[in-house]
Amino acid sequence: MLLPFFNKGVIEAGCDEAGRGCLAGPVVAAAVILPPDFHHKVLTDSKQLSEKQRMALKEDVKSAAIAWAVGWCSPEEIDKINILNASFVAMHRAVDQLKKVPEHLLIDGNRFKKYKELPHNCIVKGDSLYYSIAAASILAKTYRDEWMERLGEEFPVYQWAKNKGYPTMDHRDAIRAHGITPYHRKSFRLLPEQMELFK
């Protein structure tokens, strides 16, 4: 059973991201404020759930949340500021869009760049400990997956509908055979012989 809040009586937004380890596509973050009495029998870290479960939970989270929002950081931005900073930017953009202003942020992971003057706590594996972070992980993952599926229609050889931009063997083989797209992160090690690729 996950915990409904970190600080009782405080408006908390849970934040998480998806896509940090990908070779292509944006990094996507979500911020979610849930009611303090929220409970759910299935909701947990998105990585522990099937795609079908995540899609069902996406609708449960959106309907139950006091506020929710999704923020993005493009491949170009990732290449410019690095993936860690891009993850923070995506989280900040998600919090920016919340229709209710939070008083505290719960961040999945061990690092975060402070958002305005809001206090925050970084919680390692927070998506398996707190409902709000788990809810954010569901939204970030499902929104990013759907986006990668749409991009995959434009560039089917990379099989993004299946691998979502992660460094699978099929994805790397397609890069080797066809080069890269505007959606690839050029600052990432796309292939072991990456420097040869860009000559």
From TrEMBL:
User: What's the Enzyme Commission number for this chain?
Assistant: 3.1.26.4
Q: Which positions are annotated as binding a divalent metal cation? A: D16, E17, D108
Matches recorded under InterPro entries:
RNase_HII, RNase_HII/HIII, RNase_HII/HIII_dom, RNaseH-like_sf, RNaseH_sf
Q: Which PROSITE patterns match?
A: RNASE_H_2
Keyword Cell membrane in record:
no
Q: Could you tell me which residue ranges the RNase H type-2 domain spans?
A: 10-199
Mind telling me which Pfam families this protein's record contains? Answer: RNase_HII (PF01351)
Instruction: Give the cofactors, semicolon-separated.
Output: Mn(2+); Mg(2+)
Show the catalytic activity: Endonucleolytic cleavage to 5'-phosphomonoester
Gene Ontology molecular functions: RNA-DNA hybrid ribonuclease activity
Task: Assign the protein's first listed, main location to one coarse class.
Answer: cytoplasm
Q: Which UniProt keywords apply?
A: Cytoplasm, Endonuclease, Hydrolase, Manganese, Metal-binding, Nuclease
Cofactor annotation remark: Manganese or magnesium. Binds 1 divalent metal ion per monomer in the absence of substrate. May bind a second metal ion after substrate binding.
Compartments (UniProt record)? Cytoplasm
Answer yes or no on keyword Signal: no
What CDD domains does the record tag this protein with?
RNase_HII_bacteria_HII_like
What family is it from? Belongs to the RNase HII family.
Its biological purpose is as follows: Endonuclease that specifically degrades the RNA of RNA-DNA hybrids.
Among HAMAP family, the record links this protein to: RNase_HII_B
Q: What's this protein's name?
A: Ribonuclease HII
Its taxonomic path starts at:
Bacteria, Pseudomonadati, Bacteroidota, Cytophagia, Cytophagales
